[in-house]
Every structure is written in structure tokens, then in C-alpha cells.
Task: structure prediction
Amino acid sequence: MPVAPQSFVTVAKSELALQVTQYSALASLVLFLYDHAITLDAEVMSIWRGPRTLGKLLFLWTRYFGLSLLIIVVTGAVSSTLHIKLSTMWG
Result:
């Protein structure tokens, strides 16, 4: 039975959307890590060496929890794509 051309278009659009999502997540991670790298010295001087306050706790929570979530999103996007590609290659 022949395959309809619309199904090829749908698969191509889905693959493109998946690639855009992956590249966007990876770009976000790179920018996030760059921001951490260039502001780490100021963070150490003003946040880590200061007294323990609620503001300090909230700052550290948002800064490092956000990084953790972004790493999970990026690795999840890559592993799901790898699973999809492997399953289509090997049946």
C-alpha cells in the first residue's frame, strides 16, 4: 500500500520542530552557563561571603535550581530524540 505524501510532510515538520526545540534548549543552556561563568566572581564576593539571609537563600535557590532544571530539559530532549531515531532505525 503506498504511503500518502501528507504523512511525509507531517514527519518532516515534526522532525524540524524537534530539532528547533533541541537547539533552543541547548542554546539556553550555553547562555545560562556563560552567565554563570562571567558572574561567578561577583557572586562569590557578594553572596557567598555575606551573612545567611532569606535573600541569599532565594538567590542561590533560583540560580542553581534553574540550572539543574535546564540541564534536565536538555538531556531529556537529547535522549528522547535519540530514542526516537533508534526506534525508527531498528524497528
